[in-house]
Write a structure and sequence with these properties.
The protein is mainly alpha-helical. The protein has helices at about 5-15, 20-25, 35-45, 55-80, 85-90, 105-120, 120-130. It is built from seven helices and no strands. Helix 1 packs across helix 2 (about 20-25). The radius of gyration is 19 Å and the shape is elongated. Residues about 130-163 have low confidence and may be disordered.
């Protein structure tokens, strides 16, 4: 196995999970999805031949744990917001004794509802940045039905939805 391809493949497996070959293929410009599938099959049949295969597998598993944690958080957030008829107005946020003065409760509700819609983290921010002239999240770009943005499938709250 080519070391360069191995590194590329394992990094993509860390990012998307070993089974999300569609998204892995999207990031490999020089190969078709079918070629990526063939490589993945070969990789998983022969990975133990690699010198440091334990390290590669450990990194892939660590990445898959992050994906699972992200999915768990997004599912919990969706379940919380599903309890409200209109979470944009009715969501109650419980603050601890050390609530900071950074944002109002209305701004916090807005952020929680947007995170539920778009996801969180760098990938979620990339949904807005290319669409908006400013870096801040803005309502107009998220209401254009003709815009489609691809995000990793593990970002279930935002996956491939028109924004």
């Amino acid at each position: 196995m080519d070391v360069g391809h191995t590194h590329t493949h394992t990094h993509r497996c860390e990012r998307y999970g070993r089974n999300d070959l569609e998204h892995i293929a999207l990031e490999v410009d020089t190969k078709t999805e079918e070629e990526v599938r063939e490589y993945a099959t070969s990789f998983w049949q022969r990975f133990q031949e690699l010198v440091e295969f334990e390290k590669y597998i450990r990194n892939i598993e660590r990445g898959e744990q992050k994906i699972q944690r992200y999915n768990d958080i997004m599912q919990a957030l969706a379940a919380k917001l599903d309890r409200y008829k209109n979470p944009w107005k009715d969501l109650k946020i419980m603050y601890g004794p050390n609530k900071g003065k950074g944002f109002t409760e209305e701004e916090d509700r807005f952020m929680v509802c947007k995170i539920n819609k778009l996801g969180y983290g760098v990938a979620a921010l990339s949904l807005c940045v290319p669409l908006c002239p400013s870096v801040s999240l803005c309502a107009p770009c998220h209401t254009r039905p003709s815009r489609r943005v691809m995000v990793p499938s593990w970002q279930a709250g935002a996956a491939n939805a028109p924004v």
